Amino acid sequence: MASEPADITDLLLRWNAGDSGALDRLTPVVYDELRRLARSLLQRERPGHTLSPTALVHEVYCKLVDQNRVGWENRTHFFGAAANIMRRVLVDHAKKKFSQKRGGSAKKVAIKNDENLQTVQFASEELLLLDSALDALDRIDARKARVVEMKFFAGMTNKEIAGALGTSDATVERDWKMARAWLIQAMNSGNPPAE
Amino acid sequence: MTRERWARLEAIFDRAIALPAAGREAFVRASAGEESLAREALDLIAAHEADHPLLDAPAAHQLPEGMRIGPYAIERVLGSGGMGVVYLASRADGQFQKQVAIKLLTAGLHAAFDQRHLRVEREALARLDHPHIARLLDSGYNSFGQPYLVMEYVEGEPLHVWRLQQQPSSQAAIELWLKVASAVAEAHRNLIVHRDLKPANILVDRHGEPRLLDFGVAKLLGESNAEATRTQYYTANYASPEQRSGAAITTGSDIYSLGVVLHELLTGELPPGNALRGDLAAVVAMALREEPHRRYATVDRFAEDVRRSLKGLPVSARPDSLAYRTGRFLGRHKIAAALVLVACTVIVAAASVAVIQARRAEQVTQYLKSMLGGSATDPDSLVRERGAAVKLSELLEQLDRRISAHPPAPEVEFELRHVIGLDYYQMGLYDQARNSLARSRQLADRLYPANHPSRHDMNLVRGALELAVGRFAEAEQILRHLRTQWRNPPPHSLAVLCANLGTAELRLGHRRRAEATFQQGLLADPSNPLLLSNSSLVFIEQGRFTEAIARLEKAAASSRAAHREPRVPLAWTLANLGLIYLWTGQHEAARRNAAESLGLFEATLGRDHPATIHPIMTLAHVTSARNPSQAEALMRRGVAAQAAALDEGHFERAVGLTHLGFVLMRGANPQEAVKPLRLALALRKKTFQPPNWRIAETEGFLGEALARTGRRVEAKPLLESSAAGFAEVYGTTNPRTQDALARLQHWGR
Known about the structure:
heterodimer, A: about 200 residues, mainly alpha, B: about 750 residues, alpha+beta, Phosphorylase Kinase, domain 1, Transferase(Phosphotransferase), domain 1, 5 domains, 6-stranded antiparallel sheet, elongated
């Protein structure tokens, strides 16, 4: 790996101290690591060993960041940033799978009625639907889109999201409910509702 | 969609979903005003009510009954804690009918840490197979990627509830506790420390068999991850001092917690309670000692003592030793702890930093010059000037503030904080030193990997600092850890490390360990002055003065030969040398060494530094016969320096008072000596436990003072006790014992 854990921690601390350039350097490292992990896990498709996006972000965090040195706020910001990166990782992966399937060249993905495969399963069409709905939501209400990213892709709690966004738990909860309903509505109708 | 329209939609949605379902449509239509907005709001509300498997990955605490985790179906929640939820569940695939407990982590950010704990728990439990440890049956990830553990379900009551319900006899309670102890011992044999032993984690089933649960915060010993030796999870009432302070955790931490559990099980109270008596009280007290290494070495030994006390057999637990009490006392009195060490005729560890300082002197000088516009010379020459210590301390404070206001590059700041910490340390400003080193440590964490030499240097200084302030257990811990961490240290560094570590071990009462440590250092660097000096303490405490003198002379010679060795450590060496020469009746050598020591102290630490009392008292002794008034003036100066720096109750003050008493009693008016000597004796008796040469010394002087004023009846028992004390500590042939016997013969008639 090109980057040592110490560097990531340092970048994280610097970013949190207001050095916005640090985020630019942080992102590719986290992205690479997430993609690498996601690839190995998604390809494994072994029952009982799938991993959710949340767990992935946690894995990467544990691996890259020296947790002795970063406070709760830093973790929150890392997860806030990682939520967006995770979204990109999964969407890229889903796009690849989706195009392989449409091209018919790739091995067919077995979708059994096995709860252990759910995570692998959603990694294609449904996820792409969610992604474009989320883009649409972002254009209407960027904060709500961030809330969804953090909750869904990084498994953050309302309190943690509130911390990252500088708002209250109650606002996050309201945002989430509205965003969730709007996204479901958007995905069910096949295209986003009145924009 | 316009911002206004979105805001209206949101307002309607928020309020509508708070209403009962039946009233929503009417509310929406009334508040929307127009059909299209109402339609959108109603669609959203319908979506709000719908399930969505993708978006609704449930958090662990929301798992509904009947939901499956792997092959298990959830029945109900058994309990929940900071890390997750424990469910009662059973096999849903009909393979066998058995209830199990499933521990599932709550989702969320903190789960990153908890996942690691769950992994540790899984590994720990997988290693353990013991009738009194709840067994691990299975583990895996659920469909949302959350890890879970499946454990044997124990139907029973927590220990404290069991005690209330069963009201067991002491015998029954102890027998149950022994089973728990055997479980903990098994874990320790597998290199696992539980770290959260408490009644709530010990379930007693209906057959009266206990099961140890919850290895969630366990520590796998030998794991390379340094973080894993520390944890923020603990239960205050049962946690050992090292857990509460965030220090490293060992099996001793579990021994402590087991001690608390036993105490509570027997008395119903948390320690310290007064209900325990006799051997059992001593046994529990030993388990509850503050320093882990002074508790039982193993759970098995602890259990053996408990078993023996049950049978009325003698136990191995001993009451607190002198060294321990002293250590505790010193730990509470940080002030001038360098002096505290010397009170035990110790040479302070300051030289350890000399090397490092020499290496970085260039950098400091550069920085000082830049800060002070070129007016500053190197810090050594500043110190060399009389009274410069004060100036230097001001300079350091100024630097401190400037660095805080305008931090330089982290690498530079690390060096500076390090050096400033060293300087504060050398000047005895230990709180400032600690702050500075803590900052330096923070920076090192950012800059250097765990095994970087700069960190070793810093830890060496941290250890020396703890030693200097009398926190011997901490010093020992830091330094012992450093010794294992440091691959191929330079011989000089190893010598300094051993000098400090050995001294800490000696202070903690581990004479043999200290001897071995000093020996290790001497093999690496046989002429290291600090090491030579400190290693003489082993001899001094045993009254082996000839060997001590040889060692100290070698240390002094070595110190003088070293090019840049700072003179403060040499001053301590000479002070001790003077004192031992005095004790062995070599007054000219005593005077010479003490005079040089005093000169060095005055030049480096200042004329009024309380350290001066040590050479002063030797000088006063050798002067008293020839010139009593000069001796008295000297002692009064030393006592005044102490009074200015130390609390009235500081046991160091006994040194000044004892020897002031000595010169007064040999002067024109011996009656004046009685009061300071009584004070000194009270202080020393409060601090030390007889037999102790310090108590014996003051008793001898007080006895003589009383006899000189005609109060022979009062004097005799003191003189007898003094002679007996010296004889017990030093043996009958020791010159100090001979002195005390002569005094008894002359004044005790």
